[in-house]
Amino acid sequence: MARPARELKPDRSARDLFGAELRRHREQGGLSLEGLAKVIRYSRSHLARIEAAESMPPLGLAEVLDAQFGTGKLFTALYKIALREAHPDKYRRRMELEAKARCIKEYAGCFVPGLLQTEDYARTLFRVCDPARPEDRVEELVTLRMGRQALLHLTRPPELSYIIDEAVLRRPFGGHDIWQAQLTTIAEVAVGSTSLVQILPFNHGEHALLGGHLTLLTAENGTTVAYEESTTTSKELDEPALVTRHRRAYERLSACALSPSDSAAFIKAVIEEIPR
């Protein structure tokens, strides 16, 4: 017996409004959840959770619903708002700046940058960082992480530059298939039209950003904000002197790291060494 439809409160959150609009347009179109699931090729149970505001919509669903119901960009707009709401307050400004940035530069000393992570890598990371985290929360965090990557597919995406420490490439993560897919993803964007990846080899030795993770977000007007982060925290630095110091540290590392083409070759060599 199907459970009764959960009462929604559209004024409570963008996620509730998304679910309410999904239910309204589905019922107006004479479709059951099963019928909609078949038409748009999504899981019925997943759609039920989204409609009940129990799960975040996955990346791409909003555009599919807009096309199905002829709603212009209604669901797309609601998804963007829901995505921002879902992040903790301390991360929302970071997400807003990231969405508006024209240039994003990152140094990664411990883990793959979020905009380059595959779903399986992100899922493994969220599980290992908090073994007690419920699986539905893990999946929600993965959805949020993948949602951030929508900016990479804009008509005018930001320019991306990454310096990735060799340590990130050498630590096996999630098993052979997950790790191979993640490294392959990094290699594919190493020399792109709007992206560059440089590997900082072990033989470079010590440096100013050792062991950390730095992001530099530069807006259209040239204003830059820096973020230092770990797997669970993120600290904004907007004082000009601190931003300048971090930018210079990044530039020094960039000058010492492998070129993007050599970095792509380096990553492919590491992939070949992954034991099965």
Task: Please count the helical segments.
Answer: 12
Q: Which structural class best describes the helix and strand composition?
A: alpha/beta
How many domains make up the coordinates? 2
Per CATH, the architecture of the largest domain is 2-Layer Sandwich
Strand order of the largest sheet: 3-2-1-4-5-6
Would you mind describing this structure in some detail?
- The chain is an alpha/beta fold and 276 residues long.
- It has 2 domains: 14-84, lambda repressor-like DNA-binding domains (434 Repressor (Amino-terminal Domain)); 92-273, Endonuclease, Chain A (2-Layer Sandwich).
- The protein is built from 12 helices and 6 strands.
- It has a 6-stranded mixed beta sheet, with helices on both faces.
- Helix 4 (61-69) packs antiparallel against helix 5 and helix 7 (119-129) packs across helix 8 (135-148).
- It is globular.
Note the topology.
Elements: H1 14-28, H2 33-40, H3 44-51, H4 61-69, H5 74-86, H6 89-100, E1 103-108, H7 119-129, H8 135-148, E2 159-165, H9 166-170, H10 176-189, E3 195-200, E4 213-218, E5 224-229, E6 234-237, H11 240-256, H12 260-273
Parallel strand pairs: 1-2, 2-3
Antiparallel strand pairs: 1-4, 4-5, 5-6
Helix pairs in contact: 1-5, 2-3, 4-5, 7-8, 10-12
Summarize the structure.
By secondary structure, this protein is an alpha/beta fold. It has helices at about 15-30, 35-40, 45-50, 60-70, 75-85, 90-100, 120-130, 135-150, 165-170, 175-190, 240-255, 260-275; strands at about 105-110, 160-165, 195-200, 215-220, 225-230, 235. It has 12 helices and 6 strands.
